């Protein structure tokens, strides 16, 4: 039996071991949120499919049919789908993890556990919705008779990248939200804006055509661009990957994750006093 | 005894009180504006005051001890528990814990109203630090103790508040940690359930090797459960002793504003209370058998309670008085009604004095409250719950229990 020592400024020593020890609670909290998510709704989990599906249809209609934007040689709906699904995952993971600490204030002020469990389990809940919504992609590929290529095997990798991309800002925002409730208003704004700044409804190659290589790099100062480009590369066999832009965007994701963890760890000890 | 289970050295928790910005939710704008103002004026921040919720607290607890933590509101009891359960970190000092800690600062933490009873047992168990295996092993026991078998698959938002509390306490009562930290959780549910909880706590406490820290305002619970007691006041330790009874008594006496001098007569005219206008208690006093005012009695001494009363106007229905005797912890010991012995009806107008003579109380030494009430056909007219405190002292050895009741023994050979 190891002795536990509590001292000012010392809580950090066995942090990661503690995180591992509390994995069951992590599972339970995620399980709770999944169970509760569609309670007392009529169509239940179908919401996880319906919302992105409608977004895809509108996006494909407006940008593909009306604006006639190019789509890298695949049906426009599939290209939009490959952008919308990771975007939905990112935005709901970000929104929910950002609210996870404030939403569980009663737990934080009454029970000890590594606080990182809360935003992490919120991301897992968003991931379950994401996994369900993959049905749309399968459906569209069957409808348009698009054969997947070997690149589809890389999809889990890009999904992992999406995890990292959502986790970093999620941790940062939720920790900030504990002290500055302004973030309750900032986050919906970020999400709303992000949908148009990020290449969700259009292809990044459009930017490249219009503004050249530099334009594309500037657009890639946005962590979700790498994820969406990766999804498109893996799903649509014809898209070319701009590796420079991908590297920049992914590096930013990792950087945000490190910053998020650092800030979260630094402020975590005062959560119970501030919340 | 080997190493202590818990050792607390020089523990302190400091909060900073800001006097200008009283907002609890600081906004980003405030912080930025504050930085700006500070940079611009080159003055220090607005007046800060340091407040020590706990200061230089040190104690040790051996394995298997049940420690009661007592003190008035704001004494630092809950802060101490929060530090021990790692919810908040200390500002100075150190704590060494030699075992798994489970804390129970609130009943039903993390219960989700949408989930069923069954699901909440699992969730709450996990939150309180039980493993999946432990929860499954004691699942049936938890359900049986809470008496909610029939509603296991109903969302708890449809539960009555009593069922909800029973289920929540039941999960907590089946925790199996080496160190259990409990805050005031017995103050839930109805009297019957409270008694059941106290019984459960007692059996948990008796199990060997369990070390418990227990915060309570109910001195009867502290006396019953605890093998030692820690008295905190304004963040500091006043007393830490194994003589629970003595410390509790001193705490209760110190808790009242008169430490030594117990007045034998209390003027009630200005005591704040809800009162009608028809009947107002003017004063209450105590007399010994020799008709001398006193607030200290022997267990077998006669006590006379004197009530002075003003009637404004005419009372139409017959007036009744009641006198309540309570322990210093607030437990009712006895009640007397005027009218139990008929023959002296109360007047219906004017000022008068009424005396109630109790031949002997046979109470265990300690401090007790006298409360008085006046009523008319069941409607209260005036009531003072804690009107006067008196003390029972004994020169003889006192035996354990609430009463020092006399008894005669007879032995016959069969």
UniProtKB/TrEMBL annotation, chain A:
One of its GO terms (molecular function) is ABC-type transporter activity. The chain crosses the membrane at residues 42-67, 73-95, 116-144, 150-173, 185-202, 243-264. It is a multi-pass membrane protein. One of its GO terms (biological process) is lipopolysaccharide transport. Keywords: Cell inner membrane, Cell membrane, Membrane, Transmembrane, Transmembrane helix, Transport. It is found in: Cell inner membrane; Cell membrane. Residues 43-267 form the ABC transmembrane type-2 domain. One of its GO terms (cellular component) is plasma membrane. InterPro entries: ABC2_TM, ABC2_TM_bact-type. PROSITE patterns: ABC_TM2. Belongs to the ABC-2 integral membrane protein family. This is Transport permease protein.
UniProtKB/TrEMBL annotation, chain B:
Residues 35-259 form the ABC transporter domain. One of its GO terms (cellular component) is membrane. InterPro entries: AAA+_ATPase (IPR003593), ABC_transporter-like_ATP-bd (IPR003439), ABC_transpr_TagH-like (IPR015860), Bact_Polysacc_Export_ATP-bd (IPR050683), P-loop_NTPase (IPR027417), Wzt_C (IPR029439). The keyword Transport applies. It comes from the Bacteria. Signal peptide: none annotated. Keywords: ATP-binding, Nucleotide-binding, Transport. It comes from Brevifollis gellanilyticus. Belongs to the ABC transporter superfamily. GO terms for molecular function: ABC-type transporter activity; ATP binding; ATP hydrolysis activity. This is ABC transporter ATP-binding protein.
């Amino acid at each position: 039996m190891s002795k536990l020592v509590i001292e000012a400024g010392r809580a950090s020593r066995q942090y990661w071991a503690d995180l591992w020890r509390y994995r069951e609670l992590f599972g339970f909290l995620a399980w709770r949120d999944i169970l509760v998510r569609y309670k007392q709704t009529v169509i239940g989990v179908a919401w996880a499919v319906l919302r992105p599906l409608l977004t895809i249809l509108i996006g494909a209609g407006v940008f593909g049919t009306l604006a006639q934007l190019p789509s890298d040689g695949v049906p426009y709906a599939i290209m939009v789908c490959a952008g919308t699904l990771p975007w939905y995952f990112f935005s709901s993971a970000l929104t929910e993890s950002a609210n996870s600490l404030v939403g569980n204030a009663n737990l934080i002020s009454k029970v000890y556990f590594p606080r990182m469990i809360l935003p992490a389990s919120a991301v897992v809940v968003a991931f379950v919705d994401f996994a369900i919504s993959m049905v749309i992609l399968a459906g569209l590929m069957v409808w348009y008779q698009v054969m997947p290529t070997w690149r589809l095997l890389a999809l889990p990798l890009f999904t992992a990248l999406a995890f990292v991309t959502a986790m970093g800002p999620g941790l940062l925002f939720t920790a900030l939200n504990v002290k500055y409730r302004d973030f309750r208003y900032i986050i919906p704004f970020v999400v709303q804006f992000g949908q148009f700044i990020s290449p969700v409804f259009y292809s990044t190659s459009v930017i490249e055509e219009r503004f050249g290589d530099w334009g594309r790099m500037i657009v890639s100062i946005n962590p979700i661009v790498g994820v969406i480009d990766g999804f498109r590369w893996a799903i649509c066999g014809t898209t070319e990957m701009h590796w420079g832009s991908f590297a920049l965007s992914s590096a930013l994701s990792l950087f945000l994750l490190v910053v998020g963890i650092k800030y979260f760890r630094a402020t975590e000890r005062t959560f119970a006093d501030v919340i | 005894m080997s190493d202590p289970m818990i050792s607390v050295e020089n523990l302190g928790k400091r909060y900073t009180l800001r006097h200008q910005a009283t907002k609890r939710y600081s906004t980003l704008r405030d912080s930025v504006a504050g930085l700006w103002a500070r940079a611009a004026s080159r003055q220090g921040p607005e007046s800060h005051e340091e407040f020590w919720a706990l200061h230089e607290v040190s104690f040790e607890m051996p394995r298997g001890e049940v420690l009661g933590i007592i003190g008035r509101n704001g004494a630092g009891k809950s802060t101490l528990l929060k530090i021990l359960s790692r919810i908040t970190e200390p500002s100075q000092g150190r704590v060494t814990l030699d075992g798994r800690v489970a804390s129970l600062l609130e009943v039903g933490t993390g219960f989700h109203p949408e989930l069923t009873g069954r699901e909440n047992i699992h969730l709450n168990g996990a939150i309180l630090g039980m493993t999946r295996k432990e929860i499954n092993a004691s699942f049936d026991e938890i359900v049986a103790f809470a008496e909610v078998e029939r509603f296991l698959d109903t969302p708890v938002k449809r539960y009555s508040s009593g069922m909800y509390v029973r289920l929540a306490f039941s999960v907590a009562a089946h925790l199996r940690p080496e160190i259990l930290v409990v805050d005031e959780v017995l103050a839930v549910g109805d009297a019957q359930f409270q008694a059941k909880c106290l019984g459960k706590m007692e059996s948990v406490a008796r199990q060997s090797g369990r070390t418990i820290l227990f915060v309570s305002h109910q001195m009867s619970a502290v006396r019953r459960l605890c093998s030692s007691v820690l008295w905190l006041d304004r963040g500091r330790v006043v007393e830490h002793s194994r003589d629970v009874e003595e410390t509790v008594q001193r705490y209760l006496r110190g808790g009242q504003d008169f430490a030594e001098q117990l007045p034998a007569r209390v003027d009630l005219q200005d005591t704040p209370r809800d009162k009608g206008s028809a009947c107002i208690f003017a004063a209450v006093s105590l007399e010994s058998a020799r008709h001398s005012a006193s607030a200290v009695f022997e267990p077998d001494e006669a006590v006379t309670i004197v009530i002075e009363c003003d009637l404004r106007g005419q009372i139409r229905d017959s007036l009744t008085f009641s006198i309540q005797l309570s322990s210093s912890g607030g437990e009712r010991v006895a009640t007397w009604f005027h009218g139990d012995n008929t023959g002296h009806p109360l007047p219906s107008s004017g000022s008068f004095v009424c005396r109630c003579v109790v031949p002997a109380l046979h109470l265990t030494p300690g401090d007790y409250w006298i409360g008085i009430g006046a009523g008319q056909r069941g409607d209260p007219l005036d009531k003072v719950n804690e009107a006067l405190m008196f003390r029972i002292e004994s020169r003889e050895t006192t035996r354990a229990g609430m009463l020092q009741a006399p008894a005669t023994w007879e032995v016959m050979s069969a």
